[in-house]
Amino acid sequence: MKRITAYQPLPIAFEQGDGVWLWDTANNRYLDMTSGIAVCSLGHAHPRITEVIAIQAEKLLHTSNAYQIEWQQILAQELAKITGMKQCFFTNSGAESNETAIKIARLYGRTRHLDNPQIIVTYGAFHGRTMATLSASGSQRVQKGFEPLVPGFLHVPYDDLSAIEQLAKQRQDIVAVMVEPIQGENGIIIPQTGYLEKLQTICHQQQWLFILDEVQTGVGRTGQWYAYQHEYCKPDVLTTAKALGNGIPIGACLMDGAAQDLLQPGYHGSTFGGNPLACRVAHQVLQVIKQEGYLEQAEHIGQYLLERLQQTLSSPLIVDIRGKGLMVGIELTQPCRPLMAIAAQYGILINITAERVIRLTPPLLLTKQEIDWFIPRLQKSLEQYQD
Questions:
Q1: How far is CA 343 from CA 96, 140, 338, 369, 376, in A?
Q2: Residues forming a β-bridge with 320
Q3: Range list of β-strands (E), 133-289
Q4: Mean pLDDT of the chain, nearest integer
Q5: CB count, 10 Å around CB of 12?
Q6: 5 or 14, which is more confident
Q7: Is the pLDDT score of 6 beyond 90?
Q8: All domains of the chain, ordered by start, with CATH?
Q9: Chain centre to alpha carbon of residue 54
Q10: CA 40, 46, 48, 49 torsion: positive or negative?
Q11: Residues of the chain with pLDDT > 90: what percent?
Q12: Least confident segment among 5-9, 66-70, 218-222
């Protein structure tokens, strides 16, 4: 078979994990500072998650949404408690959750008798790789080669309320604004404090849906269940995935306010979405985070990681070190993808995004001792790359 080239994987294959650590097929150990791109927030082989997977796998994996699924209802109720949202549609991924949000916005546009409803999105955003979600994304790198794009999106600069206010004066066909509380794929771009709260105010004034893509920032990553909870605001539509299943594929699109009751039977569906295994595992993920204090851990250890990096990491390549909770970006002066392979030689796993930003999204159970072990190795990696 011809070698698959959709990815550019490093020549490392992992066969075992434990907490924040991974072992490859040659039994080399690595500190995982990526969590599989913000997925395994409870680390690898967490005993409570492993136990639930085994128990449910022995009972039932799938029946389809033609029937009621008890664990789906239990998980939806738990997400409602956490977020205050009223309805939930389960998917298998972040892209599917965002696709659902886009369909909800279009349905909302029809209630306002708009034939061509528009959604405001931002440059630098990443919402997925389906045709609609890549069209909503603000990156030509993601969109290149897939034109013509899906219409119905108006792009504005991120963290720029005036640009949105200007569009509100110019157009009568806007139905929603869709943003990430922190832009992850664009290099951990954190907006000004109050951005989301003010954006919600604009949406309410204009009768637009306020849609938040929390696929990467959700489930405790920033020290709150969802990043919007750092401010006094609440979305009409909230998307979540990644860490929700700690490696088991699951996503959700939550609805409230004017977004409720728009998805009627037959309008949308998913064969695997909300299956018993994924929902039971996701429910256990939420219980572990709550019962073992990982929200507080993410906030406090994240602050320690950020401060230690700012205080001790030194290189003429560094432009900025920024972050919120356990979501940290180290921006360099130049593209730096080779750093991933160099860092792996020192036993640390990092991710490169936006071509020149080291993105760190470690498991929420990371400790100070592991951070102190990590930083000198990252320093050596930067020095080797610079040479």
A1: 33, 28, 9, 18, 11
A2: 331
A3: 153-156, 174-179, 209-213, 237-240, 251-255
A4: 97
A5: 15
A6: 14
A7: no
A8: 14-32+293-386 (3.90.1150.10), 48-291 (3.40.640.10)
A9: 26
A10: positive
A11: 97
A12: 5-9
Q: CA torsion sign, 185 to 191 to 194 to 196?
A: negative
Q: Which two tokens stand for residue 359?
A: 């993105």
Contacts of 250 (CB under 8 A, 6+ apart): 90, 91, 92, 241, 244, 274, 278, 279, 281, 282
Dihedral angle at the C-alpha atoms of 89, 90, 95, 96, nearest 10 degrees?
A: -70
pLDDT band, residue 3 (cuts 50/70/90): low
Kindly give, in sequence order, each residue whose CB lies less than 8 Å from that of residue 353, ignoring residues fewer than 6 positions away: 184, 185, 186, 187, 188, 329, 359
Query: In this predicted model, what pLDDT tens digit does every residue of 63-114 receive, in sequence order?
Result: 999 999 999 999 999 999 999 999 999 999 999 999 999 999 999 999 999 9
Stretch (H or E) spanning 277: helix 276-291
Tokens 């408690």 belong to 81
The predicted pLDDT at position 350 comes to: 98
d(CA 357, CA 335): 8
Active site residues: 126, 213, 242
Q: Identify the burial level of 237 via C-beta atoms within 10 angstroms of its C-beta, where 0-12 means exposed, 13-18 middle and 19 or more buried.
A: buried
Q: Is the pLDDT of residue 371 over 70?
A: yes
Query: Length of the chain in residues, anyone?
Result: 387
Q: Which residue has the tokens 């969590």?
A: 35
